[in-house]
Amino acid sequence: MLVQPITARPRQALWALGFRPFFLGGSLFALVALLLWSGVLVGIYELEPAGGMLAWHRHEMLFGFAVAIVAGFLLTAVQNWSGIPGLSGRPLQGLFLLWLLGRASWFLPLPAWLLVLIEGAFLPLVALALARPIIQRRLRNNYPIIGLVLLIAACQWLTLIGWLRDDPLWQRRGVLAGLWLVAAMMSVIGGRVIPFFTRRGLGIMSPTPARPWLDRACLLGSVALPLTYVLGLNDASHPLMAVLFAALAVLHGVRLVLWHDRGLWHMPLLWSLHLAYAWLIPACLGLALWHAGVPINPSLAAHALTVGAMTGLIVAMMARVSLGHTGRPLQVPRSMSWAFALIQLAALARVIVAPFTPLGLGLSVLFASAALLLFLWHYLPILLRARVDGMPG
């Protein structure tokens, strides 16, 4: 087992490791972005970011919020994988400042090329920070992680070029391809940590049975889907795409069955992960039905992915990683159990209630905002303070 070297860390705990600023900044930004988007939809106020509110909403919830959490998690995890100290101090401050500037750039009077440069520079720099320790230690199992980050960056560039060209089709393809690449990242990371966390949380010390065929099939299917969006195969329904989406839904379902243990339902840090991952199944099935000719709005499947799976897994992972990497017991207060449940309610309201009444959208925003507020209320002091065990990080 690799032992992390003890090195000098910044005096401010916030800049000790990547999860701290990006978990805090990403969750706070998601809360603000949700309130801004819902406020514009109901006509409380008007905002005119570059490209319009729809383009802003699509881009920012993925390449602003989700990507920030992914970056924070990976920049922290790579230290454990490699034994090489993760990004900290001034380099971490600079990377976070670039991300923050990207969020503000939509509302600043900047030339279009400068906005694109600011927005598009973040993920390549994250990939570079990950590549150095992974390549140095020759961690071949983690090479796909670097590739996925670069592919998400490519999708962001496709979206931004579509924005420059005033081409909604390019923007849509870039965002949806990027979204399913994040789903691929969830499949890779989830396949590693969910069964591991489950067994450890239940006191099972034996290693998780290896099923490389299932992991590879999930990875191949998950990476194939974004490519079909880039190629335009999802612009209209297609029977072959129905088969691909249905097959991926089955693979995710098999994974969940193999990971399941009835004891996990007594532990919020476990059931929150499993329920979030489970939303990948209706997301895939919804698009399988649409491609098969069933008159279903594909936006519902997209929101099953973004609200249920992506946001659900993000909040659950932030809750656990923040405790583990600050030396605290892996126990959450009852308020965080409510936060996990509220994310599930937000997804149900957006996917099941919203098609029948506008009230569903309002409930979804209300539930998701409450969940993010609960996370910030409990974890703000944790993320700002040093580890309780005196270790670096």
UniProtKB/TrEMBL annotation:
Domain of life assignment: Bacteria
TM spans (from-to): 21-45, 61-78, 112-131, 143-164, 176-197, 217-234, 240-258, 270-290, 302-323, 335-353, 359-380
Pfam families membership: NnrS
InterPro entries: NnrS (IPR010266)
UniProt entry keywords in alphabetical sequence: Membrane, Transmembrane, Transmembrane helix
Name of the protein in its database record: NnrS family protein
